[in-house]
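Service request form, structural biology core

Requester: graduate student, group of Dr. S.
Request type: structure prediction, single chain
Budget code: on file
Notes: please return the result as structure tokens.

Sequence provided:
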Amino acid sequence: MSVPFFSAEPEACPLPEIVPIFPLPSVVFFPETYLPLHIFEPRYREMVQEASAHEQCIGMALLKEGWEDQYEAAPPIHDIGCVGRIISSHKLADGCYNIVLQGIQRCTYQEQTVITNYRQARIAPYTHQVRKALTSDIRRHLEKTAQEYLKAKKATQLCKVIGSGTLTDSILVHNLSAGLDLSPIEKQFLLESDDLSQQARRLIDLIRFKLAALRTAQG
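Core staff response, request fulfilled:
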């Protein structure tokens, strides 16, 4: 289990109106998180090369169920995703790339007709994100529930980080959402929350289900 907590606020740089889209079947990206990616398909190598030469932004999107038969074309994606900025890029000898994205903003995607080999979308900020802070009760409940689960998974160091009180509400919620061993559709459910408080409450419920499953498995 990996929860690579964000160490600083994303840079306050304006996002472009249109970004390249990188759809994957099992990755949900969140603001204020880091995402390492190995880019090997030719169309996505082109995407990284073009993005690196311009605004350095890439929109991550989760593929909808049934994507397998259409993968080489344009299978449907969830229209709420997260745009990240390339903060590290290394081109390998075989032409592939290793990159790291920094999660910047949750957005809705409107796909565009393009001549590029990769998909692109016009983006709009996900406007439901009104409440930026958690109440003390929700924060305390989330910390307690997450620590209980992480202790059961023997992730004691992460428990200490969560209990340190040094993380902002949004960094705590987004990194737990990204890093805990939840399914892609559960993470998409979290990403589509109306605000940070709803995301935290949904996260608490999902962790409770996992705790119950652990207890059942342990007898």
